[in-house]
């Protein structure tokens, strides 16, 4: 008879460790453990059925062993020792020493973590969606003493976003834009990597107090370092942006000067052919607003429109900008406003939606539909599978049916069809608004519903078969 193995000593149960045991192994408190896990990209694991009944948080043993050798643990310990020194100085009444110690607190160096988590530059670009969302969110925040959100942090976030926007607009990387209730969705293709992020509207936000900002700040700390690396790699230097449009023009002229002519002998090479295709594609996007100059009125979102128009080859002006532009400038071709103004026959007067819809359809739309007085057409999401052409073809079919039949015959059917179509569109819009977590849950529920429907259909078929046999 073999030796009896004690419960929890071997097998799949041994591969997992609870959070309390992990804290004892690493000799850190819960606050530092959370911070370490966020910075290293380690998350709780779903344990086997035996452990799931205990209602505890579990981690993989390999992950905890991986955290043991982390250099940040030393800085955590140094910081704890430093805090003891500050407390001692305060109890003795030596405020000068306490202040000096506070200024010289040991800080975490996260450069090695970026290199560790993203071995290649394309890996960093592929994972840039969440960093851009969080950095742009903090860039729109007001300063808050109670929540420890200083002005320096907000400014650094704004600087990082502006630097990334500078590269995107100078190299015509922007592809799609969508104005939603949450904010403005952008999609850009940077060196072959598709990046999608959301930017909040430039409105002063009131910060809710029930959100854990400390965890968000930990994520932000790592994302800022990652963004600095990415921006430096893209731009080649750290640029202080004073005038966005001027910097974009400088970068565009530099890119044109640095263009390399390829010899005819190498033109048949597949990699060079792929590069040519990419250049032709970017040329399409860069020439959409070529030769057009837009004047922005105060009520329109300046920063978004400036970024978008410059990305597609246009020029932007507004009153009292760095060039001291005026509405009387003869270069102006389009005026973007949301109110009725005195019109000039040589210019086109449009609402901001015209710019975004033209970008999504990659053609200059008719200006008559977007005049300041007129009601705007629906702003459809470019991220949806449903094409604008399909919507137009459906509407054309409906118009044809109306012409063929008499109005009193198909009035009811038409109303039902419109109601169904509207329901479909609202459902699809709601799906796009879902977060990643909720989207996964929604997909799971949908899958289960489909499976149940398939089972029902099979049972009905069997029933029909049995009934036909009995007859």
UniProtKB/TrEMBL annotation:
A cellular component annotation (GO) from this entry: preribosome, large subunit precursor
Membrane-spanning segments: none
Any one of the GO BP annotations: maturation of LSU-rRNA from tricistronic rRNA transcript (SSU-rRNA, 5.8S rRNA, LSU-rRNA)
Entry keyword Nucleus: yes
Domain BRCT: 284-372
Start-end of Basic and acidic residues biased regions: 416-430, 440-464
Keywords for the protein's UniProt record, in alphabetical order: Nucleus, Ribosome biogenesis, rRNA processing
Protein species of origin: Paramecium tetraurelia
One Gene Ontology term of the molecular function aspect: RNA binding
Annotated family: Belongs to the pescadillo family.
Subcellular location: Nucleus, Nucleolus; Nucleus, Nucleoplasm
Protein name: Pescadillo homolog
Disordered: region residues: 390-471
Functional description taken from the UniProt entry: Required for maturation of ribosomal RNAs and formation of the large ribosomal subunit.
């Amino acid at each position: 008879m073999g030796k009896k193995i004690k419960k929890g000593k071997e097998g799949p149960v041994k591969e997992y460790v609870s959070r309390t045991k992990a804290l004892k192994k690493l000799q850190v408190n819960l606050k530092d453990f959370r911070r370490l896990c966020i910075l290293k990209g380690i998350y709780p694991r779903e344990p086997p059925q035996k452990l799931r009944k205990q209602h505890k948080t579990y981690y993989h043993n390999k992950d905890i062993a991986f955290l043991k050798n982390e250099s940040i643990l030393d800085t955590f310990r140094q910081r704890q020792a430093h805090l003891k020194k500050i407390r001692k100085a305060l109890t003795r009444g030596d405020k000068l020493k306490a202040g000096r110690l506070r200024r010289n607190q040991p800080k975490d160096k996260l450069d090695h973590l970026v290199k560790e988590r993203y071995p290649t530059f394309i890996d960093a670009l592929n994972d840039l969606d969440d960093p851009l969302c969080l950095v742009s969110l903090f860039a729109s925040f007001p300063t808050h003493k109670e929540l420890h959100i200083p002005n320096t942090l907000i400014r650094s976030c704004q600087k990082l976003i502006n630097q990334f926007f500078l590269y995107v607009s100078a190299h015509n990387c922007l592809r799609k834009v969508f104005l939603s209730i949450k904010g403005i969705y952008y999609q850009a293709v940077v060196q072959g990597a598709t990046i999608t992020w959301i930017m909040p509207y430039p409105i002063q936000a009131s910060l809710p107090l029930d959100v854990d900002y400390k965890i968000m700040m930990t994520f932000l700390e790592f994302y800022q370092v990652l963004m600095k690396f990415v921006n430096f790699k893209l731009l080649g230097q750290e640029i202080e942006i004073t005038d966005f449009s001027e910097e974009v023009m400088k970068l565009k002229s530099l890119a044109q000067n640095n263009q390399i002519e390829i010899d005819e002998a190498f033109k048949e090479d597949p990699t060079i052919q792929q590069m040519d295709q990419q250049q032709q594609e970017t040329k399409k996007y860069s020439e959409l607003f070529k030769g057009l100059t837009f004047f922005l009125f105060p009520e329109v979102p300046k920063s978004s429109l400036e970024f978008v128009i410059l990305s597609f080859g246009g020029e932007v002006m507004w009153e009292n900008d760095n060039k001291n532009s005026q509405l009387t400038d003869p270069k102006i071709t389009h005026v973007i406003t949301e109110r009725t103004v005195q019109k000039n026959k040589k210019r086109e007067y449009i609402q901001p939606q015209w710019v975004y819809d033209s970008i999504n359809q990659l053609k200059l739309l008719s200006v008559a539909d977007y005049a300041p007085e007129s009601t705007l057409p629906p702003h459809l999401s470019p991220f949806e599978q449903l094409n604008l052409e399909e919507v137009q073809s459906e509407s054309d079919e409906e118009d044809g049916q109306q012409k063929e039949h008499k109005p009193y015959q198909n009035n009811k059917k038409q109303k039902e069809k419109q109601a169904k179509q509207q329901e479909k569109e609202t459902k699809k819009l709601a799906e796009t608004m879902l977060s990643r977590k909720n989207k996964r849950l929604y997909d799971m529920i949908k899958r289960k519903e489909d499976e149940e429907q398939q089972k029902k259909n099979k049972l009905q078929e069997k029933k029909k078969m049995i009934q036909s046999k009995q007859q």
